Amino acid sequence: MNQSPPKTNAFMGFATTVGAVILGVVTEVGAISRYFFQAVREGIRPPFRVRDILRQMEALGVNSMPVVLITAIFTGMVLALQSFTGFKRFNAESLVGTVVALSMTRELGPVLTGLICSGRAGASIAAELGTMKVTEQIDALVTMGVSPVKYLMVPRIIAGVIMLPVLTVFSDVVGIGGGYLVGVHVLDANPTVYIKRTFDYLEISDVTGGLMKAAVFGGLLALISSYKGFVTEGGAEGVGRATTGAVVLSSMAVLISNYFLTSMISG
Amino acid sequence: MIVVEDLYKSFGRKQVLEGVNLRVPKGETTAIIGGSGSGKSVLIKHIIGLLFPDSGRVLVDGEDLCALGAADLVRVRRRFGMVFQGAALFDSMPVWQNVGFALLQHTGMPPDEVMEVARERLEWVGLSADVLPRMPAELSGGMRKRVGFARAIAMDPEILLYDEPTTGLDPVMSDVINRLVRSLQERLGVTSVLITHDMVSAYHVADHIAMLYQGRIVATGTPDEIRSSQNQLVRQFITGDSEGGAYQVR
Ligand SMILES: Nc1ncnc2c1ncn2[C@@H]1O[C@H](COP(=O)(O)OP(=O)(O)OP(=O)(O)O)[C@@H](O)[C@H]1O
Ligand SMILES: [Mg+2]
User: Which of A49, A93, A196, B58 is the 20 to 30 Å CA partner of A243?
Assistant: First the structure.
């Protein structure tokens, strides 16, 4: 029987939970960093598995492209609508194109692509590697003198670092296109003026900054999802847990790193 | 010679190995018997450096696996071949690439020669060349197991570890595998560690039998010594008696 007053009890319970969560996060971040350094160390040494990298790039692109495009076009469209409504209040409707272009390239293109790939690619990486782990395929690799980090993780990270910016370029273009469609055909903006406004204030650094963020997101989500796959335990159920864990952790990593990357890049 | 010294291993709060001592003489076959969940797979994974102990040592020809750096560990591991309990074939590649995986990774051997080696090793385990291009998912459990066997012997290892190679095979196919284990040892002089539940297989194949029970080796001996052992645990295990008093199922 527990004799202590309920209030203290609840607080102790809460503190214990918070403590456990913080400890868990710190431990996990530490483990992921170790994998990261190992991936760098093994990744810069030959052989470079170009074919594996291309295969992963294809998987990532094919997996995520449709969703990225659909998300981008509707986001561009809704951005145009929203900024038009807001800007009309102070007679700045003509800036809709500018806002769409800056928002897409600097922020929404990379972040939405990162989140979508965390869901699609992150889940499939964790499920594939997790299955390999629980069926002892990873052990089999190790016994044959092949490093799972080199053989499985490195190609996925490189594919992520390359493909996320590529997907983001598509996302930027399609998003700006979506904004144009709504701006010109729904909101009756003058096409020439809209296009001029789109590019007047857009600097190349807006685009490149966004692509740099995307590259980091790609590396992060591939690293985290591979890690989740490698540490999978407990059969099919464990693979399920690893998959959801990978999606949640990758998405959080994208959102959190986005803030710091943005402040570094624009600062 | 492989020496396991006072090996302890736990997962979380679960103590699996509690002071295992074992010597595996060179060029001979040692069978490890023991109940389900007694830690046989965990033990064999320590021998090839897939798991590392909480305390104790594993010496392979005098080299302590725990003390080796990554590169040396790879070098030692490549002297081994391992047949996994669940075959552990790579789902994403056809049978011939599975069997020839180590050759494709570590040697510059062209694919048609790898294919030839794969064909030969598959023949040794009683599989025909038709399976070469097939994917693991298309094979029966017994065939997968034998492909796993073929993969383990593709690089002519000095030491072979078998985790229940005959479990799930029919009696005739089990006999094929038993004879193969025997002939590899006689022809190539490989050192083998064989985990099994199957006493027929252990008697037939092994030079030495060791019984793992509750995290320790409780009996060792030649097949004849084990067969006539007075140790109550051993008697109960080999006769399959769950109510003899000494042996506790946990
Ligand atoms: N990676 C791991 N994490 C946690 N527990 C583990 C792990 N590997 C094994 N165990 C536990 O260790 C114990 C021994 O497992 P092991 O696989 O060695 O049994 P076994 O003797 O090979 O049994 P079987 O004959 O059924 O294959 C089991 O209780 C298992 O749950
Ligand atoms: Mg086992």
Answer: A49
Q: Among the three residues B156, B181, B216, which one is the final residue of a domain in this structure?
A: B156
From chain B, the residues in CB contact with A135 under 8 A are 86, 88, 91
Residues in contact with A50: Cβ distance below 8 Å, sequence separation at least 6, in sequence order: none
Task: Tell me: do B230 and B245 sit in the same domain.
Answer: yes
Residue of B nearest to A142 (CA): B50
Instruction: Name the domain boundary from B156, B185, B219.
Output: B156
Residues of B in contact with A137 (CB under 8 A): 88-91
Going by C-beta distance under 8 Å and a sequence separation of 6 or more, which residues neighbour residue A179?
Answer: A76, A77, A79, A80, A96, A97, A100, A101, A104, A198
**Model pLDDT, residue A59:** 92
- Residue B78 CA to residue A139 CA, distance in Å, equals 13
What ipTM describes this predicted complex? 0.89
Same domain, B131 and B239: no
Mean pLDDT by 10 residues, chain B (250 residues): 92 90 92 90 93 92 88 90 92 94 90 93 90 93 89 91 87 85 84 89 90 90 87 83 70
Number of structural domains (chain B) is: 2
Indicate if B60 and B90 belong to the same structural domain. no
CA distance B14 to B28: 33
pTM, entire model:
0.89
